[in-house]
Amino acid sequence: MPSPDTASDTRTLQGNAVTTTITIQELASRIGNEQVSDWVEVSQDMIDKFADATGDHQFIHVNPQMAAMTPFGGTIAHGFLTLSLMPLLSSKIIDAVQIEGVKMGINYGGNKVRFLQPVKSGKRVRGRFKLLELTEKRPGQWQQTNEFTVEIEGEEKPAMIAEWMSQIFV
């Protein structure tokens, strides 16, 4: 984190987290750094709404009685629901960094995504974001690659690990 006397360092309080504003060049110096979010519950209601939005109503997601008879012992979140938690979890990063002058950010795609363990209904998850690469593609357009890990509270093995790319326009 830049020192408080750095000219571009601006701190604001959002909820319980402190947000620091840095330049895109300062972000480039943070390759290898990790940021961690607060915990978020994956409720059955969240799973049911995702099933409705995607049309994926497989019983392991939406039928607690039938899902109880599987090796999972109950309903589990969709793998794509776990992946789609990226924006929510990134909004809950403790000591978040905001990039000065950002006009917009867009998803560019994933290099790899692995679902390692299902998230059971009612469990809490958090995101771990590690900056792997930041490259200027053209003036004002940067591409960042992050390792995004979804951890399950009380579990050693994460639910998912993804290498995800996004583009930032400043």
Structure report:
The protein has 170 residues and is an alpha+beta fold. Strands 3, 4, 6, 7, 8 and 9 form a six-stranded antiparallel β-sheet that branches. A three-stranded mixed β-sheet has the order 1-2-5. The protein has one domain (15-41, 76-169): Roll (Thiol Ester Dehydrase, Chain A), CATH 3.10.129. Helices cover 21% and strands 40% of the residues. The two termini are 21 Å apart. The protein has six helices and nine strands.
Give the topology, please.
Elements: E1 10-14, E2 17-22, H1 24-28, E3 34-36, E4 40-41, H2 44-54, H3 59-62, H4 64-67, H5 79-84, H6 86-90, E5 97-99, E6 104-115, E7 124-138, E8 141-152, E9 160-169
Large-scale geometry: elongated
Q: What is the CATH class?
A: Alpha Beta
List the total number of helices: 6
Structural class: alpha+beta
Provide the CATH superfamily.
Answer: Hotdog Thioesterase
Distance from N terminus to C terminus (CA atoms, Å) equals: 21 Å
Please name the defining characteristics of this protein.
disordered N terminus; elongated; three-stranded mixed sheet; Thiol Ester Dehydrase, Chain A; 21% helix; alpha+beta; 170 residues; 6 helices
